[in-house]
């Protein structure tokens, strides 16, 4: 949903031409291969199977010089459960097509099991990146901050206080797992979570969309609780700075 669709994007991938990867490529005059896809899990990155897409790691060539990785949130149902909980409170904001896709919440047991597995998946992505492109710089970028450190705003994100707290814990866990993967694979880490703190959905200047969806999953447009253009621009700038500080 930021703000124009990448013309190479499969319809359901909802890939933006202004995501941080595209903006970073423009900043540094790079040729970009973008295989991001909305809803992808780390397992999709490694093994494919999403909307008939091949594994995202298969796009890496031995001549690739830079690889950025943002993954894991869908594995642990972080935003998917926020969608589903919001839908339960206020289904009227979604079309019937969206309700069929996003209104089923995963249980705590399913989430906890996924949390146990996501760290290894994130590390495997980095390992594959380094293996397939030995001379590339690999950068993990964690997720933008959606929720404030404390407090609630059910008028903007219609879930219960307990669900707010549960999602906050998942966000912290995902941030830690991403940092661990970067360290374990000898990769760089850029924390979008730290960069966007203070611009959460409850703030005076949110850098994530509110509870809003496009007309249907086939229509390009904003998606609830995802980064806005401001967030993507700030992330691209921060990644570029991190690369600039690296030795040649």
Provide the fold topology.
Layout: H1 20-28, H2 42-47, E1 66-69, H3 78-89, H4 96-102, H5 108-132, E2 137-141, H6 161-184, E3 188-190, H7 192-195, H8 229-244
Helix pairs in contact: 1-8, 3-6, 5-6
The portion of residues assigned to helices is: 40-55%
What's the story with the biggest beta sheet?
A: 3 strands, parallel
Q: Could you tell me the radius of gyration in angstroms?
A: 17 Å
Number of helices: 8
SSE topology string: HHEHHHEHEHH
Number of strands: 3
Spatial separation of the terminal alpha carbons: 35 Å
Average residue-wise pLDDT:
96
Spatial ordering of strands, largest sheet: 1-2-3
Shape: globular
Helix and strand content put the structural class at mainly alpha
Low-confidence stretches: none
The percent range for strand residues is under 5%
């Amino acid at each position: 949903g930021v703000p124009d669709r990448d013309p190479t994007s499969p319809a359901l991938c909802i890939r933006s031409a202004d995501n941080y990867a595209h903006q970073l490529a423009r900043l540094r005059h790079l040729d970009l291969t973008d295989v991001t896809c909305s809803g992808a899990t780390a397992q999709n990155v490694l093994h494919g199977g999403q909307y008939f897409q091949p594994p995202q790691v298969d796009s890496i060539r031995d001549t690739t010089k830079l690889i950025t990785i943002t993954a894991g949130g869908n594995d642990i149902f972080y935003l998917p459960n926020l969608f589903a909980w919001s839908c339960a409170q206020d289904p009227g904001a979604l079309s019937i097509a969206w309700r069929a896709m996003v209104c089923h919440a995963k249980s705590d047991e399913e989430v906890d099991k996924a949390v146990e597995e996501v760290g290894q998946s994130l590390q495997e992505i980095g390992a594959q990146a380094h293996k397939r492109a030995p001379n590339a710089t690999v950068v993990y970028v964690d997720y933008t901050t959606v929720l404030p450190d404390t407090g609630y705003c059910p008028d903007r994100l219609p879930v219960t206080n307990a669900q707010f707290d549960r999602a906050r814990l998942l966000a912290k866990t995902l941030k830690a797992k991403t940092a661990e993967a970067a360290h374990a694979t000898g990769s760089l880490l850029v924390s979008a979570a730290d960069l966007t703190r203070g611009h959460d959905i409850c703030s005076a200047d949110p850098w994530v969309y509110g509870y809003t969806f496009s007309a249907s999953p086939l229509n390009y447009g904003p998606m609830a609780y995802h980064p806005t253009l401001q967030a993507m621009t700030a992330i691209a700038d921060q990644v570029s700075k991190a690369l600039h500080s690296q030795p040649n």
